[in-house]
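INFO  loader      accepted 1 record
INFO  loader      residues=513
INFO  predictor   begin
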Amino acid sequence: MAQIAVKNLTFAYEGSFDNIFEHVSFSVDTDWKLGFLGRNGKGKTTFLQLLQGVYEYAGEIRTGMAFDYFPYPAGPGQLTQCGAELAEAWKVDGESWRVLREMEKLKVEAEVLYRPFGTLSPGERTKVMLAVLFSGEHDFLLIDEPTNHLDQASREAVKEYLSEKKGFLLVSHDRDLLDACVDHVLVLNRKTIEVQAGNFSSWWENKSRRDAFARMENEKHLKEIRRLRAASDRSRQWADKSERRKIGADPVKDPNYVGKRPYIGMKTKKMQSRVKQMERRLDREIQEKEGLLEDIEQAADLKLMPLTHHKNCLIRAKEYGLSYEGAEKWVFEGLDFTVCRGERVFLNGENGCGKSSLLKSVMAGLSGDREEAFRKAKLQERGSLEVASGLAVSFVSQDTSFLRGSLRNFCQERHLEEHLFCAILRQLDLGREQFEKSMEAYSEGQKKKVLLAASLLTPAHLYVWDEPLNYIDVFSRMQIEKVLLSVQPTMLVVEHDVRFRETVGTKVVEMEN
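INFO  predictor   done
INFO  writer      dumping tokens
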């Protein structure tokens, strides 16, 4: 058992005016199963890089452990190599028999390790990397969002696997995974960092209670501040009135002038002293009040203004199938489902079963020339897919790589009101300092918030979202859940977050290869 002790850690990226970490101190045990939580852009991935010595920093990080990081690098030049070859480069002390042992625990066939890495599905790649990661013996493991882009079956396999391990720090926004796999949490709050025993749900319950107490205390402080302000104003008025009487006294008209002026002066002095004491107390109350709310997640309510279509059934699929040009097999076939007004329909199935392809087909059906749209997408179909005419659709892609340039240009291209768009981004906790940056400098979570904000701002009959929550922090997920439950728009969604689907969805369409 060892410890990782962080003391007075301060770090900012070169050229940045704001510190990501400032005089941060805490310690964690290397035997813990540690969940790492925080808003997008708060510095979770940056902290993992600091642990690995990627950047220079002020302060100190003391530990006797070596670190290993997931995901391993797998660039275009490495995709032709098999997993066994990459494993040797990724982990020097990772022996093949240990990797194969871990792959068995992950319920993945051994032959996957000897196939070209580029031919593996996202779930298979994740499992191979995790098997290599846990094939060592003495490292403290840093795991950065392992379930992004994974289907439900792969997520369940990763969840079961990690629940039996220890000695890792897990960055994840998947509440189901965090509840199953961690026994402590490290949380980047708005102003502080806290370490607490328990999983996500126990931490969230404790936080909700603390926040409720802080709000009650804050209300008491506000009442006391108002009372002190009123008393201070009255005392100041009395002091000013006494001062005027002292200065304006006439010794000819007032026979008691000689004894009265010193008395008034003394009274005025006491009044002024009382005013100063009240102001000092007022300052203390204000400081205490500001400290109470510094870590509260006061998530603003998002807004959504869907349109109402004249038809009740917006999408109807009957014995529908899709394939790609030149492919020997159909991606799926025989699919029947409907999307009606007010329904939030979730597509569920393994990676590669055609969920995103089906969304492409729906979007192609909205174009004026469906055949040309299918030709460009290299899709072939059978059966029928009916999409209501005149349907306005707001689409969120799972891909963010096309986001470039400024937010202003993005708004102009999509005909969005810039001030409203930025207001939604602020409600999703994107800092104002990010508005002047190019979107290439954004984290993946921040890029996803750009796409979600654009969709929320776009009035539509149907909202089509393809894995919208990848990289999105827990707090923003809860904000999105709240607005969808409140407004109840019509949606067709691909999303593997079980909690989100169970909370928001009204219907689940199961898809098979």
